[in-house]
Amino acid sequence: MHAPLLTICACCLLASAASAADSSFTGYARSLDGRDLLYVESHAISGAGNADETRVVLYRCSAGSAPFARKGLDYATNRIAPAFEFEDARSGFAEGLKRDTDGLEVFERAGATAARRSETLPRTGALVADAGFDEFVHTRWDSLEQGASAEVPFLVPSRLDSVTFKARKVSEAIIEGEAANVFRLSVAGPLGWFFSDIDVSYRKRDRRLMRYRGITNIRDATGAMLSAQIDFPSAGRNDAPVDLAALRALPLVSRCR
Question: Tens place of pLDDT for every residue, the chain, 257 residues?
């Protein structure tokens, strides 16, 4: 698998919290065999489901430790392609999507000493970016559950372009004692030879993301992207006001302690 090209990730597929204006929850990323905790991601959402929805995600090596990476998302103009910016202070890696009067700008910086690369993209309604995939699944839920497949032009910042993925339901599972649909994302066309499948599991009764399994955009010490299973336990969810400004102001550490 050519991992550096693939940036679709569990931190991108944020769980929906439409029942509350503000909410927070935690994801635990473990190795695919379930043995090792790789990192913890803390999600905070303001104005969930509204036009002014914004989110901040902090990434830590363990629960309670200082964050080493942060992502901010803004849904102001497009729920399936929100503007976002991700930064990892350990390596200096950064990527994102910006919107302005000139259109869309996708950018990536491979490391602290690397040059920032960017490209202007056409404004198209078809593009899906980052956590917008969660919204895409919700809008296609009925057809996907009935066995139809859907092609997803998903933004891949490292390519400064989108890659077409195919989404389809492959199975059902029991997670936390409840039924869930398992949807699989596979790269369509010849590029599929270079990418592994990604499985995302949504609880049936409220379409909430419960599990992600596949490659992430968090890198290890060698710069390789980590593959992980990330679980978002219901017990860790909290419907209460969040202070996104304070989360944005937290300093990021350059190494885990």
Answer: 444 444 455 555 544 434 448 999 999 999 999 999 999 999 999 988 787 899 999 999 999 999 999 999 998 878 889 999 999 999 999 999 998 877 899 999 999 999 999 999 877 668 899 988 888 999 999 999 999 999 988 898 988 998 888 999 999 999 999 999 999 999 876 555 456 789 999 999 999 999 999 989 898 888 888 999 999 999 989 999 999 999 999 999 998 87
Q: Which domains does the chain carry?
A: 3-232 (2.50.20)
pTM: 0.90
CA distances for 112 relative to 87, 160, 174, 254, angstroms:
10, 18, 42, 11
Q: Please say whether the dihedral angle defined by the alpha carbons of residues 31, 74, 204 and 185, taken in this order, is positive or negative.
A: negative
Nearest to 13 by CA among 132, 152, 149: 132
